[in-house]
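User: Can you predict the 3D structure for this chain?
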Amino acid sequence: MRLSYDPIYESGFIGIALVVLMIALLFLITPTGISSKRRWTLLGLRAIAAIALILTMLRPAFVRSDNRPSAATLAIAIDTSRSMTLASGADNSNSSNSENRWEQQRRVLDQIARGVKSLDDNLNVALYRYDVQAESIGKGSASEMEQALTVLQSIDPDGVLTDLATPLESMVASSRATPLAGIALLSDGTQTAQTESNSDSDVSSSATVDPISSAKLIAAIGVPLWTVALGPPADSGRLRDVAVQSLPETYRMFTGNESEITFEVQTKGYNATPISLSLVWVNESGERTSAATRTITPSQNTQTQAITIPVLAPQPGRYQLIASAAPASGETDTSNDSQLAFVDVRAGGGRVLYLEGTPRMEQRYLRRALGRFPDLELTYRWIPRDTAPRWPTSLEDDLQPGRYDIIILGDLHSAALGNEQLKRLADLVASGTALVTLGGERAYGPGGYADSPLAAVLPIELDRSLSRPPAVTLDDQRPGQIPGPLLLKRTRRHPITNSRPDSKPTSDPKPTSDPNPTSDPNDGGWSALPPMPGANRITGVKTKPGVQVLLENNNAVPMLVVGEYGQGRVASLAFDSTWVWWSGGASEFHRRFWRQLMLWLLSREETDAGQLELELTRRRFNTSQTSGFTASIAREETAGATAPDWTAEIELQDGTVLRLPASATTQTVAAQRVESLRGEIAAAEFVPASESAPSAALTLPSGIHTLRVRLGPESEPIASAESPFQVIDDTRELVASGADHAMLRRLATITSAAGGESFRADQIDELVDRISNQRRRAEQVVIEKWRLGDGPLSGWIVFLFFTTSLCTEWLLRRRWGLA
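Assistant: Here is the predicted structure, written as structure tokens:
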């Protein structure tokens, strides 16, 4: 601080001259004839007035110079896109391993607020939020930043795209009113919005500005850009992730059956780290039940493992089966830790035990056919003939009550099981287990079954004279065999034989109640099948209630006889070469025949008449995909009948009902009216169920929804069906779990000449120091000058001194008689 003078008329000489003149006038004109005391009193008052005049003439001033930063704004851009919901991958003492990027960003902002709180009063802070657009959400002094951040409590990171250029452009535009001290851009660096190419002039009008161009503009105006990188870098060795994938969309199971659930688990960064897996049932009420658990330990840093877990089907109903991995320490993205499959569990699943002695062609094709049925669980036991010295083979575990629903006996000698186990088998049939016996060289009579406990179970008569010891090698003259070729003929309609080999399944009615049905002159196309190369000769059929001959050859020799024993059903086939149907081009008929035979044995004759079948091409798809659906029903053709109205609706997870457009068709097939409805589910516009036309664009959201199709009026529908499905959000924000820190470094480097720099989330103290240094570099010399008389206070004080002293001097002279 220094003292200076600013005399009137801007001349020091004139000011001094006037001062001398005024002092001379005050002190030279003095009264005479008074005492010395009175004289000095008057001179003192005149001195005070002289001092006031001197100050007025010279106008003294105090001048102080100081270095202070000018007023400016620190702009902070906050990322509110959906990528902020991904894991941060942070691994430090200040944050838990489960912290997502939004929480990491909040922590960084709080740290910045505490750091800039003590900076100069000329620094203001402006907060912006951005995703595909930018918006100002708060402003104030640096000391008030912590209070301004409370606005984030009402903001969710839900932006579907990220445009890094948007906040930069907005903050540069705002700097026209107030200079920018710097820009802090918080982001994971993922630019998901489409950007313009600098070299392409023919760009779409919907494209956004390239963030590189925005950074160059910031550099041109001399403003530093500080980027704060959130989340783990995509190329970082710290990238850690567990993903469950490749789980089939749907399963069809049957209660009590065991099914294998297969999926893949992809791990990154978890070498030699145990990962817990689980399968969970979720019923229609939302109740969860554990199905199975497993633990895997990856042997490589990046590895994909195929997982197969057997599960037991629960009670009938519709379920969701969720395969999931427990969140692992430091995982980058937890959104892919699970995958969902839809499971329809039906009643009456069948467990089949197939006992075979000779590994012939029939067993290979029979196992292939039965293995295609999800409701049948097949167990194959081969008992080789060269083990005959050790017969009977123990099947104690297999012949437990309730273990199997159907037992198939192939070309296996009775000695392989022994009378004790055959007696147990007969008891199982009597209590409800079904039995199928196949033809073969050592089946029926030749296999010694005529003298076994199983003879009473079969619906056919056995010839004990044909019995041969198990170790005897049979010659070309095989006893009890009919040489081929043998054509099969259907003798009656039955659920087992209703299928036509030359067409798709027909809707033959179930057996009539007539106890003596006549032979069907039309064999249903069975004669078109490839002939059997041979068969066992059935010497007779038992005359018991329920025993029926379903197939015979051209010589009226029984080929397929069915019957009942106790509570169980029994089917005896004289042939063992249905594989010739498959090799002869009738593979589908081969499958249907064995399918219908199994269902009849389980007392579940297959019929789809009058049922509405609803199928979706996808039951789990992304928002950018579509899924077609088809609903069909076969009904009896009625003269003059009109097609009823179809309705297709989607009930969203939140209960909203949307109507789907669909096209209906009607066809007549084999005296049946087949009505169908086809449509497509897509994330597009839907018609609200309560309106006839859309009032606004309704987008199908992500979640688990239900497709509902109805034929006929809602109050009394002819048929209806529904099927749940899942829509998965495939937002580009959530696709890349790793952040693009290289982009943020590039943006900051462009402004390095102005002090721009990139920081990690654990380097915020360094960022605060950089902001403080930037403020010091922006300091300017500020001169403060206090001059007498510039303000009313100082002017009035001098005036009062001057007038008071002179008035007092005049009053004293009057009083003393000197005036």
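Confidence is low (pLDDT under 50) at residues 92-96, 196-207, 503-521, 691-697. The CA atoms of residues 162 and 684 lie 23 Å apart.
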